[in-house]
């Protein structure tokens, strides 16, 4: 009996990335008696998809009328999919080789309910090395028993377990933590594997300025929700140490540093390639931590607009 492997790709105004990923998935070497089903979820962009996407016979195109956020888009894609096995990959990523799907499938067919793996950089420059170190750190945490540290950039799950866990929490509409929150629930059902062969390449230009914006938004919105339900895991991830909601004495330093964070990120973006790696690495960690700390002092509207600092 043929089983479907469904890959859900959420996208918002990145048709090139979605097509490139879908086309690469079509070259995967699938396990015996399986068939590929790719669902591209347009999260309310209002754009007309290019013909190249429509021409891929194994691709379903799901266009949402309004933007519902990452978690909701993945849920919508999973409901439209055919597969007994669900894969979630971001549209700016690519499988590292043509056995990516098969490697995750091997884990799911051998007692794991979920499977995550490395998210690696490309190009050999600073951000390539930075992302590889970050992924190795997450792999180490996984081996230590923190099996929920993976990412929806690279996630496979049995449909039955996905439904039993309750899908992604759609209240996470903004950047950060929705993947860890789901994996915490999934880990209560069964084992989550980390096959070394199942890696993705983050095939997109990385800029410190955009990371800073994401850290501010994550701290102000998603981190508040996540920490209120999963404080132990929040501390394990290290964010609790730089959250002014938990350490009120950090509020004043955060506000004093706030005007300098974004200009520092812009300046460092231009100089990173010329700096020794570990100096650049340390400066990036410092600036992103400062951005998260600053974000934890903010109240934001649900659309992510910054409001006044908390009293």
Automatic annotation (TrEMBL):
Keywords: Glycosyltransferase, Transferase
Segment forming the signal sequence: none
Protein name as catalogued: Glycosyltransferase
Similarity annotation: Belongs to the glycosyltransferase 2 family.
UniProt domain Glycosyltransferase 2-like: residue ranges: 6-163
Keyword flag Glycosyltransferase: yes
GO function terms (MF aspect): glycosyltransferase activity
